[in-house]
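Hypothesis: this fold can be encoded by more than one sequence.
Test: take the structure tokens below, design a sequence, compare later.
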């Protein structure tokens, strides 16, 4: 192991340019120099990672009557647009635009509204060239209640 040229410690980690001279320095003295070059034993070892496998996200589409569903569910809970907006962290004008069918909510906004109002606004997108029969589709895609729907109503 090399000796530090500044303080004399036996733990030099590399060489640095101090006062115009290139000398061995320890970890503490490396701040006094510029252009630190680590010895091979102290060079960071970079691990190679395999690239992550991207799992395809399920695609959803907004139901046709989303505006009526939002308004009906909000009124059933007895909330004003302002109260709903506060609960889902949106602006009152956004809720108004959704209810009047002027603007379609983004998927994240629709999910917030679904959770707050306990209503379905998104449905799984079914490919038009799909050859799967309707019986093979998940229960939620067909419109039948799922176990989660029963649990949500009970609790």
């Amino acid at each position: 192991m090399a000796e530090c040229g500044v303080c004399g410690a036996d733990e030099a980690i590399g060489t640095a340019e101090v006062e115009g001279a290139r000398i061995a320095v320890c970890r503490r003295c490396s701040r006094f120099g510029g252009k630190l070059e680590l010895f091979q034993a102290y060079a960071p070892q970079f691990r190679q990672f395999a690239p992550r496998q991207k799992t395809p996200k399920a695609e959803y589409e907004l139901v046709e009557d989303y505006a009526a569903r939002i308004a009906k569910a909000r009124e059933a809970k007895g909330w004003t647009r302002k109260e709903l907006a506060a609960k889902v962290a949106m602006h009152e004008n956004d809720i108004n635009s959704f209810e009047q069918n002027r603007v379609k909510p983004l998927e994240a906004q629709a999910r917030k509204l679904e959770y707050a109002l306990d209503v379905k606004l998104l449905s799984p997108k079914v490919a038009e060239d799909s050859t799967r029969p309707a019986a093979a589709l998940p229960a939620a895609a067909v419109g039948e209640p799922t176990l989660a729907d029963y649990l949500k109503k009970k609790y």
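The domain at 60-126+138-154 is CATH 1.10.260.40 (434 Repressor (Amino-terminal Domain)). The beta strands are 12-18, 21-26, 34-38, 60-62, 122-124.
Hypothesis status: open.
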